[in-house]
Amino acid sequence: xxxxxxxxxxxxxxxxxxxxxxxxxxxxxxxxxxxxxxxxxxxxxxxxxxxxxxxxxxxxxxxxxxxxxxxxxxxxxxxxxxxxxxxxxxxxxxxxxxxxxxxxxxxxxxxxxxxxxxxxxxxxxxxxxxxxxxxxxxxxxxxxxxxxxxxxxxxxxxxxxxxxxxxxxxxxxxxxxxxxxxxxxxxxxxxxxxxxxxxxxxxxxxxxxxxxxxxxxxxxxxxxxxxxxxxxxxxxxxxxxxxxxxxxxxxxxxxxxxxxxxxxxxxxxxxxxxxxxxxxxxxxxxxxxxxxxxxxxxxxxxxxxxxxxxxxxx
Length: 314
Description:
Blueprint: H1 19-29, H2 34-41, H3 45-53, H4 62-76, H5 80-91, H6 93-107, H7 112-139, E1 144-148, E2 153-155, E3 159-166, E4 171-174, E5 177-179, E6 186-192, E7 196-205, E8 211-220, E9 233-239, E10 244-250, E11 253-260, E12 265-270, E13 273-278, E14 284-288, E15 291-295, E16 303-309
Parallel strand pairs: 2-8, 6-11
Antiparallel strand pairs: 1-3, 3-6, 4-5, 4-7, 7-8, 9-12, 9-14, 10-11, 10-13, 13-16, 14-15
Helix pairs in contact: 1-3
C-alpha cells in the first residue's frame, strides 16, 4: 500500500483560524518540533516559524511560499489546496481577483448610462478637434502645393502650365491675377511668358488673411513668333508693367485664356472680329491694325468683351 493509502500520521480535524495557527496545531498534534519538520520537509526552521506566525512579508517571494505549503501538505498528508486557499485569503488574493472581475465587468458593461457617457465624450472630442482646426487655420498659413512646375526651369515655349492644390475655400492668385480653384482645392492655369526670365509668384490667402507663397523662376527661350498673315482684323496685346489675365477670341475660336506675365505679348488676326477681356486693363496695351490704342483702362480694372472688327472704328 502507498503512504496515502496508509498514512503515517493520523490527524484530527482542526478548525482553521489562520494558516499559521493551523500549521502549528497540526505539528503539535503530531508531537513534532520545528527542527524535526524542517529536516523531514526540507524547509529552513526560520521559514517554518515565520509561516506559523503569519509573517508573510518576511518570507521569500510568493512562489517560494507556495512551494513550502506544498511540501508541508505532502509531509502532513493533508490537502494542498486547503493551505493554498487559506494563504490566498489571508494575503488578499481572493478579494483582489473578485475586485478585478467586478471592475472589468463594470468597465465593459454596455448600459444606457455608458452609452450616454460615451456619446458625450465623442461629441466633446469632435468639438475639440473642430476648435483645434479653427485655431490652426488662424495661426498657420494655408496649405499650398505646386505640382507644375516642380522647380525653377528653362523652357523652349512661350507658355507654361501652373497646376497645384491649395486649401479649400482659400483664394489663389498668380502674379496678382486671381485663379479659379475648384471644390477640392485644385487649380490649373496657363501662363503666357515673356522672352527671357519670368518670375512666377503663386499666392494663397485664407479667410483669416494668412498667406502662403511659392515662387518659380522660369526662363523662356522661345523664338519670337512670326507675324500672322494680315487679315481684316489684326490685334497685338502687350502686357505690362504688371501681369494680367486675358481672354481672346478670334472669329469665335478661343486663342488665349489665362494669365499673361508682364513683358509678354500676343499677336492674333481674324477675318471678322476679335473679342478681348482683361482683368487688369491698366496693364493691357492694345495695337489694332497698326494703331496704338494704349491701355484699355485703369490698373486693376476689369474690362470685358471689347470687340474689334473690320467695321470697327478702333
